[in-house]
Design goal:
The protein is mostly helical. The protein is built from 14 helices and two strands; from the N terminus they run ββαααααααααααααα.
């Protein structure tokens, strides 16, 4: 933000009437906020949305609005991407070209990472995209954030074991992205990025908990089906241990449901976590729902029924006729 002496005042709005001329002027602080919020939304849209024509041309639009819009947007972006004045040669054309280069680089990186062929490849160096952006914590933070999101979405096609290992790397990458995000000034420019990183952490933790829980349940169901026919001969002793294991794995799933309801019920706009595409989840869910269990101290039947009802409308394979 500029100090009061060097503040860039917006163009006044002149309203004329028959009796007097009234000059209206947008407060300088409000103008800064408008531009910062616009820059924040534009940067995040360029990196995360498929359609962003308006955002790609945001700074061209600011340049056409007025001198205050041009100068304030220049100030905000130079700080955010750590662009030095010597690099710009103090020319507006150089500044605008540099900003457009950064946006094109960010857009190209996001597009590249969305390609299935690049799903599990390491992210390239930021310098591969833009010589201006390569030293910027903001650009690097976006690169790591988008890489993590792509890895998470594509890990659904792997095995449960590979999924867990991938998410260890994802969490480490997100931590680096968050650290870089906190270095950016002004902080408001990274509002959407900061929120997106935290949401990716939630998606990662929720996904790993569900994959672990349902894949464990799948194994427990197989053991239970082997032991149930021998209950009359051997008693309930052998199955009691398996019931305890089912109880523990159900608790893992239930904790994820309780902690991340906005993700699992798709109430969050950012959610791209398809429960039934995660490795082993649908199979484990169908198998545990088809298992016949007598009531005991763990209330297994009741708890399994609650989980089934939660997602019944999202998955036709959970209908009773499909479970056997």
């Amino acid at each position: 933000m500029c100090d009061s002496q060097n503040a860039i005042l917006p163009d006044p709005i002149v309203v004329q009437s028959s009796s007097a001329k009234v000059v209206l002027q947008l407060p300088n602080e409000l103008l800064h906020k408008i531009i910062i919020y616009s820059v924040e939304d534009a940067l995040h849209s360029v990196g995360t949305r498929s359609a962003c024509t308006w955002e790609m041309n945001l700074f061209v639009t600011f340049y056409c609005v007025s001198i205050p819009f041009r100068e304030i947007s220049k100030e905000v972006v130079c700080k955010a991407f750590d662009i030095s004045k010597p690099h710009l040669d103090n020319e507006d054309k150089s500044h605008l070209a540099t900003i457009q280069e950064i946006l094109v680089s960010l857009r190209g990186m996001a597009t590249r990472l969305r390609k299935p062929s690049n799903a599990f490849s390491l992210p390239p160096s930021p310098s591969a995209y833009s010589p201006t952006a390569n030293l910027s914590p903001l650009f690097a933070s976006y690169m790591l954030y988008l890489t993590s999101a792509t890895l998470r979405e594509n890990a659904a096609a792997s095995t449960a074991q590979a999924y867990q290992r991938t998410h260890e790397a994802i969490n480490a990458t997100l931590s680096q992205s968050l650290t870089l995000c906190k270095l950016v000034s002004p902080p408001r420019v990274t509002g959407s990025l900061y929120t997106g990183i935290l949401e990716e952490f939630e998606l990662s933790r929720c996904g790993t908990a569900l994959v672990r829980g349902f894949n464990e349940l799948k194994v427990h169901v197989e053991y239970m089906r082997i032991l149930q026919p021998s209950i009359e001969q051997d008693g309930t002793g052998p199955t009691a241990g398996v019931r305890s294991l089912i109880h523990t794995s159900l608790a893992t799933v239930e904790n994820a449901i309780e902690k991340y309801p906005h993700i699992l019920l798709n109430e969050a706009s950012f959610s791209r976590l398809n429960l039934f595409q995660l490795p082993g989840v649908l199979i484990g869910l169908r198998q545990i729902c088809s298992l016949q269990l007598a009531e005991d101290e763990y209330r297994l039947e009741e708890r399994i029924h609650s989980i089934r009802q939660l997602w019944l409308h999202k998955c036709p394979f959970l209908q009773s006729r499909c479970l056997h």
